[in-house]
Amino acid sequence: MHPGTGRPRIAAIVSCAVVILVVSCSAAAPPSGDQLPALHGVRLQVVGSWSGVEQRHFVAVLHAFDTETGARVRYTYAHGYLPNELDARFAHGDPPDLAVFSQPGLLDRYARQGRLVPLDAATAATVRASYAPVWRRLASWHGRMWGVWFKAANKSLVWYDIADFERLGLVGPTTLAGLVRTEAVLRHHGTVPLSLGAGGLDAWTLTDWFENVYLRLAGPAAYDALSRHEIAWTTPGVARTLVELRRLLAPHNLLGGTGGALRTGYENSVAKAFGRPPGAAMLMEGDFVASVISARTPDRLGTDVDVFPFPGDYRGEPVVMGGGDVVVQTRAARGGAELLRYLASPGAAAIWARAGGFISPNLDLDLGVYPDRLARAAARSVVEAGDRFRFDLSDLAPDRFGAAPTSGMQGALRRFLVTGNVRATQAVLEADARAAWP
User: Over the stretch 394-403, which tens digit does the pLDDT of each residue have?
Assistant: First the structure.
């Protein structure tokens, strides 16, 4: 995209399970004082699952809001499973002022239960003006919007050590079979192929692996149907995906083997992969990996570490899987609506975008804000996928099936990584799905 006049936008027609990242090239200056009211004396708490590097970047965004308004916003990291913490606080009549999470299914549940404050008229108008229809739908329940999608993600990326690939004459594979062959070449020459962090609360990385492979083998229509449990988890497409995962994530392909993967968190898996010396040649995860590489390793993006799209098209058509994070108001508190309105602005998004590891769904964010070609490429690949982009399946599902760390998709895939038993895993997934869907 090239700079132009007005507010040029990229858009495509999508279904409700499809996500398009839309980026424009208009200016993205931080909000000025005359755009935000004075909120001296206001104290707000935001609870979320961002930790480490992501937490630091989000706190910087909140600090800019504090500076502009005089408010004081405190971000609290939920050390356990976020829905459980929020449910407990609702039950005790002590919810936070706002919460940030990645599951559209959780937003639907809380809106249905009357636990969210809908966007006020001014914030809703801002979202309608600056976000594509799909993001408005993902924030809506029964015709009203209940949150702001602050962050988007391209989760169909494989990060790799340039020196390892150049030494062996490797290039980024374009098929799943090619990825298997790349792993074999790396192993043969004494290099660990993959770093995977699925320990603690980070088994969501396993669901991302499943979703990327399933989308390419079964296709977008089947992906949509499975995300709504309109087809069973015992279908052949799920079996084919698990068989492929058993090859790709075999113990001899993983840094530290299966046990190492299940003891390592996501951020540590990035740090171990691209440390000195590098522990593994590749790591599959979203564009947000960039911020961990920059903060926790000596490697330089584009010089030491590069990225290629997750391999494999569906019938020759490129497909991409991604996700996002929505901020909702969980208590009617002074300043809450203003904070949401601020987070819906390009100025708020630009603060994190400049730091890296972030993609905004805001139409008015200047593409030039992203710090390097890798970040811009991640955004562009989502746009170019058009209606073949799919939102993270586990986040579309009911939260106790898609996001719970010990049951549903995460629990079943953790056990599958150890046992490799396809049929047993399918049976568990189907039983948990039937229990979770209303």
Answer: 999 998 999 9
Mean pLDDT for all residues in the chain:
90
CA torsion through residues 422, 244, 15, 117, sign: positive
> Predicted confidence band at 31 (pLDDT cuts at 50, 70, 90)?
very low
DSSP code of residue 9 = -
How many other CB atoms are there within 10 angstroms of residue 108's CB atom?
A: 18
Q: Are strands 305-309 and 389-391 parallel, antiparallel or unpaired?
A: unpaired
Give CA–CA dist 414/406, Å, rounded.
8
Which of 283, 284, 301 is CA-nearest to residue 156?
284
In whole angstroms, give the CA distance from residue 438 to residue 432: 12
- Say which residue the tokens 């299914």 belong to: 105
User: Which position has the higher pLDDT, 35 or 24?
Assistant: 35
Output the CA–CA distances (angstroms, integers) from residue 417 to 11, 261, 347, in the order listed.
38, 9, 42
For 197, residues 6+ apart whose C-beta sits below 8 A from its C-beta are 205, 261, 264, 265, 266, 267, 268, 269, 270
Greatest distance between any 2 Cα atoms in the chain: 63
DSSP 367: G
pLDDT of residue 384: 66
Q: Which residue shows structure tokens 């959780």?
A: 106
**What distance in Å separates the CA atoms of residue 272 and residue 254, rounded to the nearest whole number?**
12
The pTM for the full model equals 0.81
Name the residue among 69, 72, 67 with its Cα closest to residue 36.
69
